[in-house]
Structures are given as structure tokens and as C-alpha cells.
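This follows on from our talk about sequence and fold. I would like you to pick a protein and set down its sequence and fold. Go ahead and set the record down below:
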Amino acid sequence: MSSHLSTPRRTAPTSVVIGALGSVQNAILPALAIAFSGIGGSGRFGVAIAVAAAAIVIGTGLAYLGWRRLTYVVGEADIRVESGIISRAARSVPYERIQDVSLAEPLLARVFGLVAVKFETGAGGSEDITLAYVTTAEGSRLRQLVRERRDEEAVAKAAALAALAAPAPSEQPAGQVLFQMSPQRLITFGLFEFSLAVFAVLLGLLQYADNFVDISLWDARVWERWLSEQSTWVARIGPAAQVVGAIAAVFVLVVIGFATGLLRTITRDWGFVLERTARGFRRRRGLFTRTDVVMPVHRVQALAITTGPLRYRFGWRSLSFVSLASDNESASHAVAPFAQIEEIAPIASAAGFYLPDEATGWQRSSIAYRTDKAIGAALLFVVVAGVLALFAPMGWFLIPLGAALVAAALSLYEWELRRRHAIDDSQIFAMHGLLAPQLQIATRLKLHSVEIAQGPLARLRGYATLHLGLGGGEMAIRGLPLARARELRAKILTTITATDFAHI
């Protein structure tokens, strides 16, 4: 190894600028709160400026000291990082534990030509190491170096695993694009992502509103007075105007919901590209924060195909990999977030999986489980109907009683059409969900545990839940007849025990 790689190095000096700009952002809200509150009296604006300036100076100083005190070393066997302003902490991660190196480019970092480098161990949280920020060239060099150090072992394991799994992953030329989303596809996707999350944000900001207005927004009397005034005004404008106003309010709400979903989708998935490279699946996406993640093929533990109530009717689905590597603290990597089933099939094949077809031997959960689930879904409504029958005017109990019938019917519908499972020589399939069905596919070879669980009612009624342990996640098949659960466990254990993992 060249000597410059084994000597301690610092992140890019311009990362201090990003820290300083972050301190400016953090100082804005407290300054505004002071400026529009009674703190400091007539001199509150001066106090606000002083507080903001102090916050910026302290934040910039801490950013500089944090940069100055952080060093990293690219060693022969590991990556070592030392950090800490007051107390020093030294961390070391062997190359064999690093599953991959991902690059993230937040908007400010991209302006300065910097990236955040994350060494992923698969454990997530504090087990991962992140260098924020280094130059784009340094980030690419670090990623290439780490991959080269662990490639020999990883490739050998992947080859052995691929030889044991059936079917083998289809051959893909390096750099082949498996899936991408055009701006038109992205806009369509965004329209299906209807969201009113903006109102949750506004409600969260209301806790600071008392600093900016002279009334207490949390005083019930304020709202009672306001509603009284509004009801008087509404009554005065007449029925026609009331109907028009209600329609306009609903229209505005719908527009906000679609706009929020569209904005969130575009910022997250702009330029979405999934490629099959020699090192695995490479996914790039993001408008403001650009991420570049590589998922080794042998780290893909299972597939999850999900959809939504409306998306399902138009054939749109989302494909995610359940992987040992984390993706924003989640083990689920979205690799085709808005695709048709014919677009998903080649991606699944490239990962060594196949989708169910007409020959798949689907089986349902037990009839006892179906009955208990339907009764459970209706029970609360039945209790409410009983209370209303005793204390409410005649006929009111019919409303929750009707809801109970609907809940039971929907539960039976899910059991009939959605809650199914299947197993063959290499894979196990599990489907569940009423309006938005989800399909999970796991390779039997990659399951590391299988457990049968029964609650008191399940033991009485003779059914169980089969928990399948996956690296990075869990798969559960609920409501199996006990004999069927034991049969599946025996088959899976046969696969696991027949494999010598020491040679994988």
C-alpha cells in the first residue's frame, strides 16, 4: 500500500463551511422566537441578533474543532477513525465487515463538490462509519479501495451461494440498466403519493405560534369564539355560497395533497436509475440529496413487492430488496418504487429470485384463523352497537352493527383472495393485505431461523404463526394449521442443515 493511504487524513476543509451554514440555519428559529416575543422588551430585536450571532459563532467553532479533531486511516485490514472534541473516540472496522460504501450528496455538499462517505456494516446505527465530507474524488477512491480489499472473499462467497441457490441469477453485463424512471413516470408516481403530511408539520409549528401572535392558540375559548363568528358569517352568505365554499375547500385540500406527494416523490427519486454492475446492484437517485448505493447480489436476502389501494388497480407495484446493508436506517432497499410486474421480473431474476406463476401451489391459512380474525374485526363494533342499544335512541345501534358486518366481510375477503403462502424447492412465498396486498419472496437457503409461535387462542384453535428469520428482516406466515406449520419448518430446516455455511 502507498504510504499516503496509511497516514492519518482529514476530511475536506470546506466541510467546515457546510457546518457554519448549518449553524446559521439553526439560529434562525430561536432568533425569530425572541424577536416576536416579549423577551428583552423594546430591545428584543437586538437580543435576537446577539443570540443568533452567538449561535453562529459557537456552531462554526464547533464545526472547525470537529473537523480538526477527526482523522481517518485507510489501513491494511481496516478503516480507522478518531474523533471527538473533548473526549477522543477511536473506531476500527475491518474490511471483511464492510458490506459496501455508499455516497451521499446533500445539496450544500454538492455545491462545494463534496460527498458523505458511509461504510456500511449491515448492523446500522453506531456500527456504521460516516465521513462528512470529503471531495468527490476522495469518496470514489475510498469506495474503490474498500471494495478491492474485500472483493476476493466476497466474490468467492457469492459464487458459492449462487451455485447452491436455484435458480442462478441471470447473467447481466456490467453496467446494464435494469430500471429507471423518466420525468413522466416520476410525475405519475407522485400523483399516486397523495399526502397531507404538510398539515402535520404546520401543527408541529403551532407550538411556537404563541411567540409570534398576541393570542393563545391553545386556549379553547379562542377557538369557540372564532367558530361562533364563522358560523354566523356562513349562515349569512346563504346555502349556495356554502356549497361552493365547501367544494372549494375540498378542492384546495386535494390539490395540497397531490402537490405534497408530488414534491416529496420528485425530491427523493429524481433521476432514479438501477444498474446491474459487476459489483452488484447500483442505485442512484435524489434531486437535492443525491445518493449512490451499491447492493452486492449475495447480500439480497428477500424480495418485497408492495402496492397501494389505487395503484393496485392500475398494475403499479414497488419492489424492494431486503438486504443486510441498511438504507436510511432501513433494511429495505427500494429498487423499483413504481413499476409494472413485467419490469419487476427481470430485476428479481438478476437477484436470483423468480416470481410466482400459474403453477405456484398457493395455500390459505386455516379456517379457524379466518373465523377468529373475522370475529375480532367485528367485535369492537358489536360492543359499541350493544352500548348504543341500551343508552342511545332507537335505531342508532344499527350503524356500528352495519360496520361490524362490513369489517367481518372484509376480513373474509382478505382470507379468500390475499392471505396465501406457497413453498417449492428453493423459495417460499407469503402474501397478505386487503386493499394493498404485499408479496414477500425468500430463498430457503438464506433463512437463518424458523420458529413456530402460538398464543392462547391459537393453541386452543389449532393454528400458529411461522416466523422466518432473515438477515436484515423477518418474514411471518400467520394462521397456519399447526400440522402445516410443522411441515414447513421441517422443509426449511432440512435446507438449512444440509448447507455447509463454512464454505460459503
The chain has 14 helices and 20 strands. The longest strand covers residues 317-327. Residues 3-163 form one domain. Residues 374 and 412 are 6 Å apart (CA to CA).
